[in-house]
């Protein structure tokens, strides 16, 4: 006979011990002491888990801190989240702010702010907000719709697309308003190296870009481009060395 798992709710200030739960809900200020396994973890207040987390679904509209690794099928962050260790999730949707030591995903969608100290590995990486990645961003498909300052040490993938953002076709007035809020010239991508099969770049500053087919669009400043099949460069872009290899 299957034993039912307990659920835990913290509505004010409190703490619970680690263990196995059906559901953990924190709407006040709650602390979990030790490793925890759960079907669902939902935070609308301030939650802290001193240990490792394994769950099917984690959702926070408040703030959550995990001091070790987090493993989940789905992670939704509309408030703020921090994982001091390695976040391993199948699907990450971040409309708030999220900070991890390392990040491994099948699918990432960032419309808020993402910060990762080390590497990011994903099959699909989509960003319309801002991000800061201290290591390598590696994905089969990288789609960056610039909505703020984006930075990675290196980017590698199959298809890599970087465009100025959703306001680019809305006219100069809206473009100016957006730039007023994000900071003049701050809606850009910076990376030391970008390498992929098909690469399309706008508003990108990079030392080296390598690929099969490469399009360097407006606002780009590239130190060196190496390509094996084709290269097109926008008249306003600044490119140093160009080499077919």
Mean pLDDT: 92
- Main sheet summary: 17 strands, parallel
Amino- and carboxy-terminal Cα gap: 65 Å
> What share of the residues lie within helices?
under 10%
Query: Which word captures the global form?
Result: elongated
SSE sequence, one letter per element: EEEEEEEEEEEEEHEEEE
Number of helices: 1
Counting helices, strands and paired strands, the structural category is mainly beta
Rounded to the nearest angstrom, the radius of gyration is 21 Å
Low-confidence stretches: 167-185
Q: How many DSSP-defined strands? A: 17
Approximately how much beta-strand content do the residues carry?
over 45%
- Indicate how many domains the architecture comprises: 1
Account of the protein in words:
This protein is mainly beta and 245 residues long. The chain has one domain (49-244). Helices cover 4% and strands 71% of the residues. The protein contains 1 helix and 17 strands. The protein has one helix at 172-182, and strands spanning 8-10, 13-26, 29-43, 46-50, 53-60, 63-66, 70-77, 80-94, 97-110, 113-116, 120-127, 130-145, 150-163, 189-201, 204-216, 221-233, 238-244. The protein has a 17-stranded parallel beta sheet that branches. α1 links the parallel β13 (150-163) and β14. The radius of gyration is 21 Å and the shape is elongated. It starts with 7 loop residues before the first strand and ends with a strand. Mean pLDDT is 92; it is low at 167-185.
């Amino acid at each position: 006979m299957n034993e039912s798992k307990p659920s835990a709710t913290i509505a004010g200030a409190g703490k619970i011990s680690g263990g196995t739960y059906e559901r953990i809900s924190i709407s006040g200020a709650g602390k979990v002491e030790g490793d925890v396994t759960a079907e669902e973890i939902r935070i609308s207040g301030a939650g802290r888990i001193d240990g490792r987390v394994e769950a099917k679904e984690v959702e926070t509209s408040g703030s959550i801190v995990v001091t070790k690794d987090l493993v989940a099928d789905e992670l939704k962050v509309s408030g703020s989240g921090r994982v001091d260790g390695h976040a391993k999730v199948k699907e990450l949707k971040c409309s708030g702010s999220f900070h991890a030591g390392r990040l491994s995903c099948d699918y990432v969608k960032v419309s808020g702010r993402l910060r990762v100290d080390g590497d990011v590995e994903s099959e699909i990486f989509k960003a319309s907000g801002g991000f800061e990645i201290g290591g390598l961003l590696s994905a089969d498909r990288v789609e960056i719709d610039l909505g703020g300052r984006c930075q990675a040490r290196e980017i590698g993938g199959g298809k890599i697309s970087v465009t100025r953002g959703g306001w680019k076709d809305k006219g100069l007035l809206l473009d100016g308003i957006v730039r007023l809020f994000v900071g003049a010239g701050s809606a850009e991508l910076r990376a030391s190296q970008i390498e992929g099969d098909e690469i399309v770049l706008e508003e990108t500053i990079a030392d080296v870009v390598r690929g099969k087919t490469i399009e360097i669009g407006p606002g780009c400043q590239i130190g060196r481009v190496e390509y094996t099949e084709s290269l097109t460069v926008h008249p306003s872009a600044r490119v140093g060395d160009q080499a077919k290899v």
